Amino acid sequence: MRAAVVREFNEDLSIETVDDPICPDNGVVLEVAACGVCRSDYHGWTGGHPKVQNGSIMGHEYCGTVVEAGSKAKHKVGDRLIAPFILGCGTCVACHTGLSNTCAHQVVPGFGTPGAYAEFVAVPYDHNLVHLPASISPALAAGLGCRVTTAWHALTDRANVKAGEWVAVHGTGGIGLSVLLLAKMLGARVVVVDIVDEKLEHARLNGADATVNAANEDVATAIHDITGGGAQVSIEALGIEATTNASVECLAILGRHVQVGMPAGSGQMRVNMRAIYSKQLAFFGTRGMPSWKYPDLLGMIERGDVDIRPMLAREVSLSEASGELRAMNGPTPPGTAVITDFQH
Known about the structure:
By secondary structure, this protein is α/β, with parallel strands linked by helices. It has helices at 39-45, 93-96, 138-158, 174-185, 197-205, 219-227, 241-249, 273-278, 294-303, 321-327, and strands at residues 2-5, 14-17, 28-36, 62-69, 80-82, 120-123, 130-131, 166-170, 189-194, 210-213, 231-236, 251-259, 282-285, 312-317, 336-341.
C-alpha cells in the first residue's frame, strides 16, 4: 500500500510502498477514506512524542470501509466506520465502567502502531468502531478526529458546562474551534483567545461572544472584564505554559480549568498554583472520549443540532500532509486539513 512514513524528524514524510496491514483476529482492516492532520501528529513529526520514530506511519483521525475482518471481529466487510483514536480493550475495569479512553491496554494507531496516513489501516479492538451515518461525508467525519470528540468530552464530562456559563478557550485550532461550536450548542457564552486576527474573526463569525488577542492585551484581565469576574470554565487547547497559566488566571472563583492541549516536549510546566489555591479552582486533565459516546455525538451532527462544517478547511493529498505539518511551526489558518486523496 501507499503510505507517508516518518524518516527524519522535521523533514517531509517519505511517500513509500509498504506492506499491507495484517488483519487482527479481534479487529478489521479499513480502506481509509479520510484522515485528519492533527497537531498531535505535528508533535510526533518534530520528535516530541516517544512513540513516533523512524518508520512510523502517523494518522489517528480516520474513517473508512472494512475490507477484511478477523475471526473475532464485531464488524463485517463493507461496513462504513469511524474510529475513536483511543481503542480500549473492552475487558478491563476501565472499559467495563465506560471509561475506555483511560484503558491501560489501549491502542492508538499512529502512536506505537501504524496509523492512517496510508491506503489501509489495521484496527484491533473493533468493538470501539462506530457506523458512520450516510449523511456525514468521510472528510467531515475525519474532521471530527480527536478534536471534536475530545472537546465534547471535556465540556460535558470533565467541566460539566451549564447553559449561561462563560467558557474561555485558549487557542483556535481544531480543539478550540470545536469547543466554541459545542459550547454554544450547550447554551454557554464563549470568549476565544488567540494571537491571529484572522482566526479571531473566524471565531466571531462562528458564534464567539467575545475575543481576545493575547499579543495585544493581558488575557486574564481582559476576560475578567468581559465576563464580569472571570470565566466559570476555561479550556487550554495548545499545550504550552503561557496559555495554561492564562487559562488558570482568567477563571472566576471555583472555576474549572480543563487541560486539553497535549503538552509538548517533556511536558513540564511552571503553573500558577497560587491562583489555583486562592480561587479554589478545579484542574482537570482530559484525553479522548469513550467510544460509547460516539453514536450520540454523531446523531446530533446528523440532526443538525450542531454544524461542524466550519471545522473542515481543506482536503489534501497524502503527499501534501508534510506541508500541513510544516505549517504548524507558525500561525495557521482557521480549520482543519483532511487527507482524502491517497494516490497523490
